[in-house]
Amino acid sequence: MKNIPEPSPTALRLLRWFCPAALYESVEGDLLEAFDADVEQYGSKVANRKLLWNVIRFFRPGIILRNSFTLQLISTIMLGNYMKVAMRNMRKRKLYTFINAFGLSIGIAFCLMIYLFIEDERSFDQFHVNKNQLYRIEEKSYDTWKNDPAKPYNESAYIQTSLQPVLKEEVSEVKYATRFNTGNPAIMIVGDKIFTEKISHVDADFFKMFSFQLLAGNLDKLFLTKGEVVLTPEIATKYFGSEDPLGKTIILDEEGEKSYTVAGIIEPPPFNSSIDFSILVPQENRP
What we know:
Layout: H1 9-18, H2 21-42, H3 44-58, H4 61-64, H5 66-92, H6 94-122, E1 139-142, E2 153-156, H7 163-170, E3 180-190, E4 193-202, H8 206-209, E5 214-216, E6 228-231, H9 233-240, E7 249-253, E8 257-266, E9 279-282
Parallel strand pairs: 4-9, 6-8
Antiparallel strand pairs: 1-2, 3-4, 3-7, 5-8, 6-9, 7-8
Helix pairs in contact: 1-3, 2-3
């Protein structure tokens, strides 16, 4: 029994990969007819090489993109028709169109506002490098006079001043700790400039715990003495102008005048910080 040469499956797979379905059957038939004729004339090896070459010759944009261009043209025409019909309906029903457009605009605006609000709330204090290791200590005080049995207590972040050094001394897990008291009014005097400013009292660990960038000064030497002060650029410019404020002396009157030396300039807190300050003074000076 005589063996019938088979066409190369690689060539046929290549043809099936790029040839549009509508053309594949007719193209394959023509190629197989040519293959049979080449087998009789040249033999199976030459016939398979010629089959592969004929398949490669069909690999051109006119064949590959034939259906894609047609579908794209049809889609473009349909889209244009949809736009014309929509514009006609909008002109005919102006009040109905206005109500729908206005309602959609209000809905989109509220969705954007809710999204921005949630993103703003979620962004608070997320810029600190060690945010996963920062904890705020709160106190819970029970009041016998409260009439709410579900919550017979008060919660706040106001705790005993002496708790900070005790925590660092007795709790090994506590590496840094700082107290933070803010919004205390004080009279600030620099030369002939006298203004009432709000100051904040912190401990030296404050600068190691939070990621507020120190713009000038030595981070490791801040508040080694209680006669130092750290300012934001706005306050520094307000009192010293274009001069270098480091090493300059200021006077703060907070239940008595005290002299301080400017030891550093720190960037102001961003809008999404729960900690706000403009002048930082050692905790030991808090009245």
